[in-house]
Amino acid sequence: MPSSPSPAPPLRLGIAGLGTVGIGVVKIVQRHGPLLARRAGRPIEIAAVCASSRHKNRSADISAYGWEDDPVALARRDDVDLVIELIGGENGPAKATVEAALAAGKDVVTANKALLARHGQALAEAAEGAGRSLRFEAAVAGGIPVIKALGEGLAGNAMRRVMGVMNGTCNYILTRMESAGLPYETVFEEARQLGYLEADPELDVGGIDAAHKLALLAALAFGCRVDFDAIELQGIGAVSIQDIRLARDMGFAIKLLGVAQMTGRGLEQRMTPCLVPETHPLAQLDGGTNMVVIEGDALGQLVLRGAGAGEGPTASAVMGDVVDIARGLRLPVFGQPAASLVPAPPAAVSAAAPWYLRMVLLDKPGALAKIATVLGEAGISIDRMRQYGHDDAHAPVLIVTHKASSDDIRVALDGFAETGVLVGEPVAMRIEEV
Amino acid sequence: MPSSPSPAPPLRLGIAGLGTVGIGVVKIVQRHGPLLARRAGRPIEIAAVCASSRHKNRSADISAYGWEDDPVALARRDDVDLVIELIGGENGPAKATVEAALAAGKDVVTANKALLARHGQALAEAAEGAGRSLRFEAAVAGGIPVIKALGEGLAGNAMRRVMGVMNGTCNYILTRMESAGLPYETVFEEARQLGYLEADPELDVGGIDAAHKLALLAALAFGCRVDFDAIELQGIGAVSIQDIRLARDMGFAIKLLGVAQMTGRGLEQRMTPCLVPETHPLAQLDGGTNMVVIEGDALGQLVLRGAGAGEGPTASAVMGDVVDIARGLRLPVFGQPAASLVPAPPAAVSAAAPWYLRMVLLDKPGALAKIATVLGEAGISIDRMRQYGHDDAHAPVLIVTHKASSDDIRVALDGFAETGVLVGEPVAMRIEEV
Predict the structure, then answer these.
(1) Which one is the CATH code of A146-308: 3.20.20.70, 3.30.230.10, 3.40.50.450, 3.30.360.10?
(2) Fold held by A11-139
(3) Strands (DSSP E) along B238-332, which ranges?
(4) What's the fold here for domain B355-430?
(5) Is A113 annotated as catalytic?
(6) pTM recorded for the entire structure
(7) Are A155 and B36 inside 8 Å of each other by CB?
(8) pLDDT at A56 over 80
(9) To bridge B232 with a disulfide, which of A41, A318, B108, B270 should be the other Cys (CB 3.0-4.6 Å)?
(10) Segment B377-394, tens digit of pLDDT
């Protein structure tokens, strides 16, 4: 507190991992020492660092800091108060480092969404049992302070829904496919050459990275245990340039959208390509930018947009947590005591929504009638339908339905297959109502 | 903390003011008791309330709470730990209530932008001297947790610029003028009949309410003392439907935009109608929604969008502060100790920007040349120029300049007047680069 008569002791950081984000943190501490001290009420210093190679060429000078080859040893150093874990990965040294830090009575800040999506409950219990902080703003949506918003600023709300576009690489690929008129495979290859993809690209384009983030948001928003396996997961590999164009023609954009929603039937969590109305901010999100939309019962809808990755934005998120801890903020990891988090009751059936259906029909009398009959029998009514001109015997047909459950849609898709009038597989994507 | 063995004592609220926001707070506390207790780590209870009339018909039952006719007496009650000031007004009972609460050793949460814009420094010193919290999330941009974002989540950044559309009534009027093609006076009257305007409408349409909010954001962002009088202030009364249409024709929307920007020449603070590119989220903001854009050196650009007013959103902001205080969070009022806040060095000249200039010229040879000469002599170069068709002797001309300082623009406007070719007054509006 400002009224404190004697200067507060510095907060001494140990940084495990000196990749892009780690170096970004080093730079902020070096650049903004006096500013950080004024804001935090005490100096913030780097005591020691750890990475795979000490003498690698880096864009910040780390020679003044202690060095450890082993992040677990870093986590146990007596001159470290707070461990920043930037190693990554859901197991291995990252997990060992966080566990060692908490066991040694140190606070932890991490950007590791995979670790928390898999082990969040156990780590939260460990942190709270030790009376330490475990904070993870940088794990979700880069520089957007969404963990703080959900866990603190919006604490007066029962949350209704949290949505987000949280993987910049996927958003880049989808928006580039549309703007350049290129197929998925071509843009995927571009993204790889630009260095936008993880070593295992499935983490990005398979939606796994974004789903890790969604699992953390859902736990915070709904007071549930993190449950990554409950997420319905579908990547962007099957999104075609044709669907992007036809969706646009109907007034929608296709996004890899994460949605966590508490319904009467339980908690729905999905990370799938969805259509969103082109007038909503989600649809207007280009390139690597991230967006999170939060709906609370008092708040209404809050939209947060910012850089989802990169040295500066992610380091900004890390430093927000560091300053909080320097100021003495102590919060339960997921916004309420870990012991009070309930297992998320997974919703067996997702909430009803309009759907986008695209199919190719044999161009013969009665084909469309058969499709319409199947929909009617499945209890699905048609909002809009377009049959596009064609030069061969294959008629492209696009249908936007009124609200239907995913079960009803599955029934309809099975029914389509039995009609014998379809060419190839139909495409079905949910239209998220925003 | 969750590891605490004995239940924590409740936090007892005293609510001064039972208008829209006060009743919203009552409803949240009544509706979400167990949820709030889980999140805050202790029960949150209403001990007493105060308003101008006890028996007015209200949409929430307040009969179980203590009653005071005098808010200062409420602030001093022994059974109140935290005073929520929702009276409003920059002096009078609101100020007396906050001062009395702090003097009595109680924490304060307020939604009162006018009070803090005028007396923020003194009240911050009083709060910090007493070791109490004074928080004001609800004072700026309704449900958007922007005070928390700026003061906490983004604490690792040196801020570059904070911008916002923070008066929903003005934004409603401007967007309605465009969508309905109606003049200012007509839409103003509509807004009055819809109850969108303050008792003194100048607070809204004169930009004063929004400027109060900007003054608070600037103090937080730049570590300066709140300095409302340093804000260059211009309301929306002079914005014409013609300018809205012509700006759109050039690819811009007109917004009442607040900007606080640290420049080499000092802190620039303005709340004026500005043009923003129609592709930016600021331009796409309709009706009563608010938006705040924050630019930090590490973060890049963060955009926050949400409801700027109303019972639920504003009460949500109040409750975020209440839960923070219940959790024991203690922060300097403006993000760093009040004693360390420096007087804002006002920038005498605003940063250079492109400008929108509209004028009507006498339709005679050489008129446009005279205007172009004046601009050239003022050192202002033209980016785009359009002369519109006309049926009389008056030629409407629209110019978008390259970057120019406000001083240069003033010189040019004076020069225009001397040419003798202008009909009426020219319009000059800054184009904010986003």
Answers:
(1) 3.30.360.10
(2) Rossmann fold (3.40.50)
(3) 252-263, 266-277, 289-296, 300-307
(4) Alpha-Beta Plaits (3.30.70)
(5) no
(6) 0.96
(7) yes
(8) yes
(9) B270
(10) 999 999 999 988 877 888
